Amino acid sequence: MEKEEIELIERIQGGDKMAFGRLMERYGERVMSMAFRFTRNHQDAEDLYQDTFIKVYRNLNNFRFESEFFTWMYRILANQAFNLYNKRKRMMLADPGEDDYLWETLPADAEDEAHRETFNRSLREQIDTALQQLSSQQRVVFVLKHFEGKKIKDIAILLDCAEGTVKRYLFRATHKLQTLLAES
Fold first, then answer.
1. What is the SS3 assignment for 157?
2. Is residue 92 part of a domain?
3. Residue 126: inside a domain, yes or no?
4. How far apart are CA 42 and CA 109, in angstroms?
5. Does residue 114 lie within any of the structural domains?
6. What string of DSSP letters covers 45-78?
7. Domain span holding position 71
8. Where residue 13 sits, what CATH number does that domain have?
9. Domain tally for the chain?
């Protein structure tokens, strides 16, 4: 860890609330980017971002400088994502007709824009629907591996579990997504 980062965390642990604002400035963009990758929805990403920083603030006194700070914070983000997915799942069970969230539209080439847009929207909806049917653990592992580009060992560290567990979640998620998308 950088000396400046250590000093900043120690100031926050000592009660300096202004230092926490600097910490948010330092990591806010990265946390928001990852939150969006987990949720694929700006509103949910903002909620996840806020929940993550609240949890970081409340638990920062427990940070013991045994790991990189961002790794510790990323674990909190992943756990908050689990909580969000579980909350969404409960909401979906309560109201199965409600859409969870839709993926952002990717820019299409100028050539055949309308056709591409329709195809991309349909594909995103199929993938989104399939992702919603995964368990929260499978979904987070899949997102970390395929959207964040994390290695299996890094995911295991972030989620505080064995590499074999990560591989099992990833295998089951991939198999289930292939089956669901083949049926669509």
1. helix
2. yes
3. no
4. 24
5. no
6. HHHHHHHHHHHHHHHGGG--SSS-HHHHHHHHHH
7. 1-100
8. 1.10.1740.10
9. 1
> What's the angle, vertex CA 158, arms to CA 153 and CA 164, rounded to 5?
40
Q: Is residue 96 part of a domain?
A: yes
Q: CB–CB of 8/41 below 8 Å? A: no
pTM, whole model, 2 decimals? Answer: 0.59
Look up tokens 């799942």; give the residue. 89
d(CA 57, CA 73): 10
Residue 11: is it exposed, middle or buried by C-beta count within 10 angstroms (0-12/13-18/19+)?
A: middle
Tokens representing 166 are: 């990560």
Per-residue pLDDT tens digits of the chain, which is 184 residues long: 789 999 999 999 998 889 999 999 999 999 998 888 888 788 888 999 999 999 999 999 999 898 889 889 988 998 888 888 777 666 666 554 544 443 344 444 444 555 556 666 777 777 778 888 888 888 888 888 887 888 999 888 888 889 999 999 999 988 888 888 777 6
